[in-house]
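Sequence, please.
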């Protein structure tokens, strides 16, 4: 299993003049997280334009980026091979979630809800395992079993504890190295087969009930619940899709 990307986001009521907070956010990062992030990029976008368009961006030299719009603040972490240790990933989630909350707190805005999205992949080492995994995941009703599927994508959305949306996208695909001139695969036999998983966990379900007050406690609970559910999900995927495929 390979971790690819983690994104943590807080959505809040629109603040039209959010760009004026760039110095406040920069001062906080320099004080609490010295040397981790550079100076902000402030984009000269008219205040009346789409509130979701980034207004302020902080970058780091370790594959992190903080993006602030008029109604969201998010931190994205792209992982490298050296960061694939499970305990390291868990610690990264907790540390980055604290940074997002610290920045959000400086904005003095009413939070609405928050979400965490993570992308991982399970490399598949041989063609037989890849084909059997495709058959294992594809519902029989969609195609005859004697056909060979080229790719499969499954989407599910569950409600957890009457508070959280747990959205999972699972795709099984082949990636090729393309010739830059012909845009054809260089070697079809060397395709990279993998299971790609996107896990999106958020408390939008509770927010939709109109009886929900976003707070530091609800935010921390979201982080904890995500960590619990992602651990269970990934262990089940490894067992059901990878190991069991070899016995099909």
């Amino acid at each position: 299993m390979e971790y690819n990307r983690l994104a943590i986001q807080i959505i809040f009521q629109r603040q039209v003049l959010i760009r004026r907070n760039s110095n406040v956010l920069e001062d906080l990062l320099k004080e609490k997280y010295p040397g981790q992030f550079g100076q902000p990029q402030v984009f000269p976008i008219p205040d009346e334009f789409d509130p979701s368009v980034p207004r302020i961006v902080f970058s780091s030299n370790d594959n992190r980026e903080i993006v602030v719009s008029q109604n969201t603040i998010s931190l994205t972490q792209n992982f490298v091979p050296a960061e694939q240790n499970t305990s390291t990933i868990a610690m990264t989630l907790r540390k980055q979630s604290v940074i997002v909350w610290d920045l959000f707190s400086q904005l003095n805005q009413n939070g609405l809800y928050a979400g965490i999205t993570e992308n991982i992949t399970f490399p598949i080492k041989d063609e037989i395992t890849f084909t059997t995994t495709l058959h294992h995941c594809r519902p029989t009703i969609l195609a005859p079993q004697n056909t060979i599927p080229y790719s499969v994508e499954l989407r599910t959305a569950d409600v957890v504890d009457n508070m959280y949306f747990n959205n999972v996208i699972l795709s099984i695909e082949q990636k090729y190295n393309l010739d830059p001139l012909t845009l054809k695969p260089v070697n079809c036999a060397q395709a990279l087969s993998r299971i790609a998983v996107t896990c999106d966990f958020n408390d939008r379900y509770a927010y939709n009930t109109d009886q929900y007050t976003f707070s530091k406690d609800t935010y921390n609970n979201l982080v904890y619940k995500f960590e619990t559910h992602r651990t269970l999900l990934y262990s089940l995927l490894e067992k059901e899709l990878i190991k069991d495929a070899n016995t099909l």
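The radius of gyration is 21 Å.
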